[in-house]
Design brief:
Elements lengths: L14 H15 L24 H34 L8 H4 L13 H4 L1
Length: 117
């Protein structure tokens, strides 16, 4: 909180001078755009990233979520197969289903990882 009083005092500068000083400071900081974005100058390398609408970014966000979910779902079976490969190895006819501890298809005569242990 400021300790300056809000009422005009005799030692303060007039409003016009204060406003001129303010505008001079703002002119040094950057151009006045009047509340609107400035048009592109046509320079090819001077953009602010990818310009997509909200629908485009919705698709991008959906794809990111889909990739994360696919990674989370596929990680445990892959790690189970790697663990089985390190501990007991694979036999002829083994698949990722048998590697991750899943049951063999009905009518299958191949041994599963559960029957080997």
């Amino acid at each position: 909180m400021s300790s300056r009083s809000l009422t005009p005092a005799s030692g303060n500068t007039p409003d016009a001078v204060e406003e001129a000083q303010f505008r001079a400071r703002m002119a040094r900081v950057g151009p006045d755009r009047g509340g609107r974005r400035a048009h592109r100058s046509g320079a090819p390398g001077r953009g602010r990233g990818v310009r997509l609408g909200w629908k485009g970014w919705l698709v991008v966000d959906g794809l990111v979520v889909l990739l994360v979910v696919a990674g989370v779902v596929s990680w445990p079976p892959v790690q189970a197969c790697r663990h089985q490969d390190r501990t007991t190895g694979f036999y002829a006819g083994d698949s990722s289903t048998s590697a991750s501890g899943g049951a063999s298809p009905p009518g299958s005569t191949w041994p599963t990882s559960a029957s080997r242990a």
